[in-house]
Design goal:
The protein is 32% helix and 36% strand. The longest helix is centred in the last third of the chain and has 17 residues. Helix 2 crosses helix 3. The chain is built from four helices and nine strands, in the order E-E-H-E-E-H-H-E-E-E-E-E-H. Strand 8 and strand 9 form a beta hairpin.
């Protein structure tokens, strides 16, 4: 499993730090824009890291990843519910190949795919849907930049 690395330079040295998947979970939760989240393999839905109260199954994550890769499968989410962590959410919209958004009551779900990972995150009121999306997509963009 290749973990993302952060590279930074000071005046005399270049430093490379390997980040664990857990550090991305902590970073998203630390923004206050995400209630719970998980990171899975986009290839098979296997769980790489999650917040304690949020562990979507491999089958749920794989179904979401598959829907992002196949518009016919996405239409099943549109007609039915988006399911994560055993909870059903009402489909709101998606960006083909990239993300899915869903709502439930005063909260919702944001799913975003990078090269190798799928990030699933929830938010609840008074958290903002837009800020949750922004947080999750920034992590996905970072992972893409690191080819993860």
């Amino acid at each position: 499993l290749d973990l993302p690395k952060i590279v930074y330079s000071d005046i005399t040295h270049t430093h490379t730090h390997t980040m664990s998947w857990d550090s991305h979970i902590d970073a998203m939760l630390g923004t206050g824009n995400v209630k719970a989240c998980s990171i899975h393999s986009a290839a098979d839905g296997g769980l790489w890291a999650s917040s304690p109260e949020f562990t979507p199954s491999q089958q749920e994550a794989f179904a979401l990843s598959s829907a992002l890769a196949d518009e016919d499968r996405m239409q099943l989410l549109v007609k039915n519910k988006v399911v994560a962590n055993g909870e059903g959410y009402m489909y709101v919209r998606h960006d083909a190949g990239r993300s899915v958004y869903a709502k439930k009551g005063a909260g919702g779900l944001c799913i975003c795919k990078s090269t190798a990972a799928i990030i699933i995150a929830t938010y609840v009121s008074p958290m903002s849907f837009e800020k949750c999306i922004d947080t999750v997509e920034k992590v996905a963009d970072y992972l893409i930049s690191m080819q993860s």
